Structures are given as C-alpha cells and as structure tokens.
Amino acid sequence: MLKLKEINQDNWLDVIRLSSGEDQRNKIFEQYIASNCLSIAQASVTKDWITKAICNDETLIGFTMYGYSRELKGYEICRLMVDYHFQGQGFGKGALQLIVREMQIQYDCKEILICFIADNLKAMNLYDSFGFENTGKMIEGEVIYSLKCL
C-alpha cells in the first residue's frame, strides 16, 4: 500500500540515493528533475516546502516536495519522482493521488500547479491522465499544468 512518510534521520540518506534513471545517479540536476538531495536542501532553507518519502508498504520507492510557490503564487507539487527501479508499475499515479489529497487537507487549496520540462512525455501523460490541464503558460522553460480541486 502506498503512503507518504516523513523524511528523518533514519531514512534521509536512502531518499537521496533514489534517482529517476540509472544514468542519473549522483547528479545534482537529473535530466528532468532536481535531485532529492538538492530538494531536501532547498526545503531546509525555506518554510514553503514539505518533503516526503513515497513508500510502497515499507519499501522506499520515491520522493515528493510540495507547498506554496512564491514564484507561481499558488500551491505546487514541486517534485514528484519514482526511482527508476519502480517506474512503470502505477506508483506515479498512486503517489500523485496521495499528494493531492494531502495538499487539499493541509492547505484547503482550490488549485494545484505542477511544472515540468515540455519534452518529458512520461510526466505529461501522467498529469494528463490525472486531470491536470495545460495552462498555456511556461516558467523557466517548464510547462505549467493546473488541477482544479473541488
């Protein structure tokens, strides 16, 4: 069963060892996403971002960072990554569902934004299938998608 877990002194090192591709390991900036290490550092110097480990039962499979984006002036899923060992198994959509639900409860937000590099077709297909819509806007070379929350 998928769940979001706090990142703490017992699991932080395992979280930063996750990567989106075998060829992306140990990079600060992976092909399509900032590394988990950089994201945790970013979240540690601002109160705007929350980081969580994504687990399937007790197995660590991914990472997310979400919160209020001052740049976008809205609530954003800033990072969503599933380790390359676990991709293609439906975990991305399940994790997205958990993150959206948690954000709705925590922030009572009416809209959630997510940005990604335009040629990241896996991300685009995931977000499209979940109900995110292209806003037609871009920021720093990334497409901005929006999910209206009820």
Secondary structure layout:
Elements lengths: L1 E5 L5 H6 L18 H9 L4 E8 L2 E11 L4 E9 L8 H17 L3 E7 L3 H10 L2 E7 L2 E7 L2
Parallel strand pairs: 4-5
Antiparallel strand pairs: 1-2, 2-3, 3-4, 5-7, 6-7
Counting DSSP H or I runs of 4 or more residues, the number of helices is 4
Low-confidence stretches: none
Give the overall silhouette: globular
Termini gap = 25 Å
Query: What is the correct CATH architecture?
Result: 3-Layer(aba) Sandwich
Helix-residue proportion: 25-40%
Q: From the 3D structure, determine the CATH topology.
A: Aminopeptidase
The average pLDDT is 93
The secondary-structure element order is EHHEEEHEHEE
Number of domains: 1
Largest sheet: 7 strands, mixed
As a percent range, the share of strand residues is 35-45%
Task: Characterise the protein shown here.
With 150 residues, this protein is of the alpha+beta class. It has a single domain, classed as 3-Layer(aba) Sandwich (Aminopeptidase). Helix content is 28%, strand content 36%. It has a 7-stranded mixed β-sheet. The protein is globular. The mean pLDDT is 93.
Give short descriptive properties of this protein.
7-stranded mixed beta sheet, alpha+beta, single chain, Aminopeptidase, 36% strand, 150 residues
